[in-house]
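Try this one yourself first.
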């Protein structure tokens, strides 16, 4: 599948990237009001940020989250009841603009079959492969987001937002180890982002499967413009020199996850 990618390693660490893609199939593009709106909320340059930082299996999709969000509950249930969020097949942007032209709507079931199901099956296969040879496995779900989105949260996010669904998805030793390596930056555990569907669904510490989500405010690695972005300013280009300090921090964070994963069950 050219839109779904896996780089396999034999260490007990998996990095997943559900929101880095910006591809929209040609047969769906006409239904969107704006291609830019349909890709604007991507986790921009997220794989470049993590590339080469650790020896881990990596799973990513090229499909835009506006086509199918592979980090949402396939039942359609909200991950954050009562709070503004986007769904499995979003119909609006983070800022509330309608994604689709009048009369057009996504075929949710078809998209689940074509994209969500293969992504889910790939994660499950990699967990099973690694769990067969390791007493425990860590799945680290990689995300980033604009630092300010008033519709979704108040004020400015901390730079590093760690989610474990209030401790349900991993041993506290893992989240403690990750948090300890975040001390040089603003950070929070289980704040506005407690982990998406991937983290919540696959985290079973009692079965040796520990999951954690890292949501990074984009100002930590991109020249993020102030205010709501426009087409002239967004996305910012990836600047390796600007991103380097965060990459150094992530090396330590991922090393801590590896140490935990390689420990005794």
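Now uncover the answer:
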């Amino acid at each position: 599948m050219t839109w779904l990618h896996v780089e396999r390693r034999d260490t007990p660490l998996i990095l997943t990237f559900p929101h880095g893609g910006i591809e929209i199939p040609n047969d769906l593009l006409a239904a969107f009001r704006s291609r830019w709106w349909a890709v604007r909320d991507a986790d921009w340059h997220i794989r470049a940020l993590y590339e080469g930082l650790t020896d881990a299996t990596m799973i990513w999709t090229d499909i835009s989250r506006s086509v199918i969000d592979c980090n949402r509950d396939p039942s359609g249930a909200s991950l954050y009841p009562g709070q503004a969020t986007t769904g499995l097949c979003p119909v609006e942007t983070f800022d509330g603009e309608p994604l689709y032209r009048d009369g057009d709507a996504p075929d949710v079931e078809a998209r689940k079959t074509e994209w969500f199901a293969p992504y889910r099956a790939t994660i499950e296969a990699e967990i099973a492969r690694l769990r067969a040879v390791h007493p425990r496995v860590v799945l680290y779900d990689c995300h980033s987001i604009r630092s300010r989105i008033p519709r979704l949260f108040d004020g400015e996010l901390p730079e590093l937002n760690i989610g474990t669904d209030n401790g349900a998805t991993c041993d506290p030793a893992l989240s403690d180890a990750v948090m300890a390596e975040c001390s040089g930056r603003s950070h929070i555990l289980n704040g506005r982002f407690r982990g998406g569907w991937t983290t919540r669904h696959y985290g079973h510490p009692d079965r040796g499967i520990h999951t954690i989500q890292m949501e990074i405010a984009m100002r930590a690695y991109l020249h993020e413009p102030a205010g709501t972005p426009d087409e002239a300013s967004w996305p910012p280009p990836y600047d390796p020199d600007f991103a380097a300090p965060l990459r150094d921090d992530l090396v330590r964070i991922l090393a801590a996850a590896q140490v935990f994963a390689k420990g005794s069950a």
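Discussion: The first helix runs from residue 26 to 29. The radius of gyration is 18 Å.
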